[in-house]
Amino acid sequence: MNKKYAVFTIILITTILITGVISTVLHQTQPTPTQTPTPTPTQINPNPINPTPINPTPINPTTPTPTPTPKTTPTQTPAPNTIINYTYTVVKTYPHDTSAFTQGLVYDNGVLFESTGGFGDSSLRKVNLEDGCILQQYNIPNYFCEGLTLVNDTLVQLTWQNQIGFIYNKETFTLLGNFSYKTEGWGLTFDSNKLIMSDGSAKLTFLDPQTYQKIGEINVLEGNTPITNINELEYINGDIYANIWLTQKIAIINPQTGQIKGWIDLTGINQHPTTNPDSVLNGIAYDQQTNRLFVTGKNWPNIYHIEIKPLN
Ligand SMILES: [Ca+2]
Asked: How far does the centroid of ligand 1 lie from the alpha carbon of residue 84, in Å?
């Protein structure tokens, strides 16, 4: 071999070796491809039409509320209804027209308004308390008049069996109207909200003071016993005072229950009794300003200012 061929051979071998080394090195330093992570599938609501409720707790839980165990109600023992019996003293005596068959009586600012009954003798009167003088009178000859009360600026008067009531201007006695009812008319009073009417039975009927329609009723009872013949009435400080026809007693009645709260025994108050059996105690009026209680009777010659006190 000549010298040129040997050099060429060496260079060729060297080149081959170097190329191989470089190739190996390059191969070994080739970066490993980045392992792209397999994407986790996005959790899409699989049922978008009926999404899972956000708040799984129902707004109105259906868990039933436990029914409370009813408390044992003790046996209701009614409180004994203590009835107070009253006696009276006469404070002052006033004159009264003995022709007045008194069926209704009400006090107003120094005068009494009085309804008198009897066929042909019925009237509406304004009477001076002090001397008994009749200041004003309106005769009602075609009716047998009964209870009377004051409702603001009007006077309201009942008739016995005609089932008609009359409404008057208090100052002029001008007849303003009338109304009807289905019972007899006996006594009448006003508690600032409603008319309270008796009909001779144990029943008190409440009437609307605007429409005169019935709005309620109570039965007057002493314990369980009905008290009948409830006659002239007066509403006094939350109670109903009532004459009981043909007796010398005034009943004090609870307006809510109808129970008798007390009895005022006025036996002997009329110092001039007559033999007329119809001349009985009837007529109660009250002066709210001075707390004066007035009573009289049919054709009695006097009106009495009385004070009452308990006996028991
Ligand atoms: Ca009265």
From this structure: 21
Amino acid making up residue 1: M
The sheet with strand 203-207 has its strands ordered as 188-190, 195-198, 203-207, 214-219
Please tell me the predicted confidence (pLDDT) of residue 81: 74
pTM of the model: 0.75
Could you tell me the distance, in angstroms and rounded to a whole number, from the CA of residue 101 to the centre of ligand 1? 14
Cα 201–Cα 303–Cα 158 angle in degrees, nearest 5: 35
d(CA 112, CA 105): 7
Domains of the chain: 84-310 (2.130.10.10)
Q: What is the pLDDT of residue 207?
A: 98
pLDDT one-digit tens code per residue, 134-165? 999 999 999 999 999 999 999 999 999 999 99
Residue 148 Cα to ligand 1 middle (Å): 7
What's the 100 CA to ligand 1 centre distance in angstroms?
Answer: 15
